[in-house]
Amino acid sequence: ITEAEVYLSQNDGTLMTMEHARRYPILTIACGPTNSIRGASYLTGVDDAIVIDVGGTTTDLGILSNGFPRESGVAVNIGGVRTNFRMPDVLSIGLGGGSVVRVSENADGTVSATVGPDSVGYQIAERALVFGGDTCTATDVAVRLGMAEVGDASLVAGLPLAHAEAAMETIRAMVEDAIDVMKVSSDPIDVVLVGGGAIVLPQDLAGTRQVLAPEHAGCANAIGSALSKVSGTYEELVDYDAVPRDEALAAARAAAIEAAVAAGAVPETVVVVDVEDVPLAYYPGHTNRVKARAAGDLA
Description:
Layout: E1 7-9, E2 14-17, H1 18-23, H2 31-44, E3 49-54, E4 59-65, E5 68-69, E6 77-78, E7 81-82, E8 90-93, E9 99-105, E10 111-119, H3 124-127, H4 138-144, H5 161-182, E11 189-194, E12 208-212, H6 220-226, E13 229-239, H7 245-262, E14 271-279, E15 287-296
Parallel strand pairs: 2-13, 3-11, 11-12
Antiparallel strand pairs: 1-2, 3-4, 4-5, 4-8, 6-7, 9-10, 13-15, 14-15
């Protein structure tokens, strides 16, 4: 392939040109989880859900809203630095397929377990019990409980069932707590499990309507990247005393569509995927921050 156009993933689940990436490299941060969110939508046909992307060391939870990742409504800290850039609403916890499991027996005969945050990471094929290693991981627990077929199951036959069950309850509690943090109401919500480490999660989670584990879930990130659309965003401060709200929103939609086409989207495929207006109390009059986003297929 020669003279091909190069596009990079950005953290709203769409693509951007190299020129745009050079001007705004910050927008590539956290594009990994958003690719998985888009891939989860494609694999399940679901447009609204919590997507849980499990890797070897961490688990990322993000909100799928109208087929796209939800943007964070608050400032996001990166490496301890408070940012004022667009970032996806993603929560990361120290749980993955390689997370180290430690079990202790209490004086009353009960069993307690911790899972992570440390992980064997890329060394899982050498250090996990099912591969002949000496470190008990979340993957070993899943295999011992019959939830997954990885490595040699006979190598975890000596892992006490009570220990494995205690570890799985810890995993369940970690994920259910994270789901509660991400939800905006107490109503049950669909959950989609993706990522190579998703085999370590139970599929009966509290607070969910249904838990989906689609075929090819381990490839959701690559699928989301390959199927990403090109987007355009328009944002402006508008005084509704000077410009009626309906007129301002219509203008924002049109400008977002124009921006998407300019970025390389096929005009006939562009649709507006998000429109919002937020009142700004610290501005005079009835000033609102009006924002619209449109996306379409890559030309």
